[in-house]
Fold this protein.
Amino acid sequence: MDRRDDDAKRGVASTLAPSRRHGTSRARWTPLTLLAIGGLALAALARADGGSVSMGDVSTLVGHTEVVPALKATLARELSKMKPSAGHSYVVNASLVKLETAKGTTKKQAVISLALRDAQGNLRGTVQGVAAGDRASDAEVVEAATKGGSKAVAEFVAK
């Protein structure tokens, strides 16, 4: 009686098949076995990678749609630098809530609101980035405000 018959009587599935050449058993990689190994490898990589921080909605509440591309680019750059704690994933939504020039001067001020949500959509916190510049372009002031707000987000997700 060969080993597969013994295993079948005991209710054990065997992945061993008789070798055609020598009559001995050898391991056979079935598609299901390969799929299981691949899944375990991907799960290990996901755990080793830790978490992620991605960009959600980016908008403006005060018009000035011309600075939204600069806001998106700066936010994407800052988020790519963040190292969240293992197993945590976050989404950051950004909104330009103020962009104005003081009357009679060249001084500009921008305020960016950043909302941090976890992977389940729960609000974890909000922060504002504020920047002012004299003789700076609108985009430069928005970029500075975005960088300032992103620092607080980076500190939170690292915990």
Summary: The longest helix spans residues 138-158.
